[in-house]
């Protein structure tokens, strides 16, 4: 069993959304509340939630481990060994090959399981759940079954179907759920606040307006035994991905009393120290992003011809993460809509 450490979001994660998600959801109680909500009821009733144990994913390939924020839990499914993996997908565009990525992930899990078992005769179930959200509001449209990725006409597919793999992953598309409905979910306060912030905080210039809807959640988090620390993790995410004036956030936090104030001061001091150390690097990163944007525009023009003004504006406004995703999509896209649609 892996002992979670939730004292802080990692200082310099590859992806701030993944890091925040993992920090909170690595607690089995938080993950279990999300899984109980999304898994079909008939399946959720068979999971031994008391046996849910966080597993190391050091055996997962570097490519998979760095692109997707992943959490792997071991449990019992109707008294059989089983694994459940949670993956957070916050890319600017859908990964059409997600079903293949998940199959690769599952094979890694199975091979690792086999390495731990002498002469095994069976494989454990591995149940994947993808949690999706982007600040653009784009809903998930990628195929959810690997059979849909295989390039065959319907007649041939019907004939070859029994000999082809099938894999359908579970999806929690936060962009298809309005905020009010999301807040009615029966999750732990920490898990629910995490999903709420992943949906509302990125690039938000006035996040405190949205935070008014989560006052009860904030109070419950602050009442917990590690309240200031847990709230500090959330504030770190808010202040790193949003565009709200820190003074506005501080004024909002002050309304919740001294424990909230303690969390804000701790967070602000830590981020200020990191900002001083990385100020020059941030300037270099902005310059690099502008260069990436112009390179991407050149590639798009070469492949698709003159670009609509809206596409040009979108690319030039994109951050480094978005630009990487769009550039990767150019290789396989047949139409601009497949990249920005």
UniProtKB/TrEMBL annotation:
Q: Which residues form the Transposase (putative) YhgA-like domain?
A: 15-187
Species of origin reads Nocardia callitridis
Matching InterPro entries, A to Z? Rpn/YhgA-like_nuclease, Transposase_31
**Name listed for the protein in its UniProt record:** Transposase (putative) YhgA-like domain-containing protein
**Pfam families hit by this protein:** Transposase_31
Query: Taxonomically, what lineage is the organism?
Result: Bacteria, Bacillati, Actinomycetota, Actinomycetes, Mycobacteriales
């Amino acid at each position: 069993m892996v002992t979670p450490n939730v004292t802080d979001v990692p200082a310099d994660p590859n992806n701030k959304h993944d890091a925040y998600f993992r920090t909170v959801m690595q607690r089995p109680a938080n993950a279990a509340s999300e899984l109980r909500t999304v898994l079909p009821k008939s399946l959720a009733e068979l999971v031994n939630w008391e046996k849910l144990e966080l597993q190391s994913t050091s055996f997962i390939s570097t490519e998979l481990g760095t692109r997707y924020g992943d959490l792997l839990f071991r449990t019992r499914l109707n008294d059989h060994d089983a694994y459940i993996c949670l993956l957070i997908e916050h890319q600017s565009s859908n990964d059409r090959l997600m079903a293949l990525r998940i199959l690769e992930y599952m094979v890694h899990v199975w091979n690792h399981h086999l390495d731990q078992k002498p002469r095994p005769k069976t494989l454990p179930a591995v149940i994947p759940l993808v949690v999706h959200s982007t600040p653009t509001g784009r809903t998930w449209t990628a195929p959810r079954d690997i059979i849909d990725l295989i390039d065959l006409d319907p007649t041939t597919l019907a004939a070859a179907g029994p000999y082809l793999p099938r894999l359908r992953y579970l999806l929690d598309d936060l962009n298809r759920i309005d905020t009010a409905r999301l807040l009615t979910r029966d999750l732990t306060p920490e898990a629910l606040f995490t999903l709420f912030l992943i949906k509302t905080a990125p690039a938000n210039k006035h996040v405190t307006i949205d935070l008014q809807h989560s006052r009860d959640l904030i109070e419950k988090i602050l009442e917990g035994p590690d309240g200031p620390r847990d709230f500090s993790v959330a504030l770190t995410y808010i202040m790193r991905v949003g565009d709200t004036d820190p003074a506005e956030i501080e004024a909002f936090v002050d309304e919740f009393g001294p424990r909230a104030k303690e969390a804000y001061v701790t967070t602000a001091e830590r981020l200020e120290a990191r900002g001083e150390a990385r100020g020059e690097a941030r300037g270099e990163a902005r310059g690099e992003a502008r260069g990436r944007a112009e390179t991407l525009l050149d590639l798009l023009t070469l492949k698709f011809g003159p670009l609509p003004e809206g596409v040009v504006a979108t690319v030039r406004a994109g951050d480094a993460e978005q630009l990487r995703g769009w550039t990767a999509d150019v290789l396989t896209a047949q139409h601009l809509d497949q990249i920005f649609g």
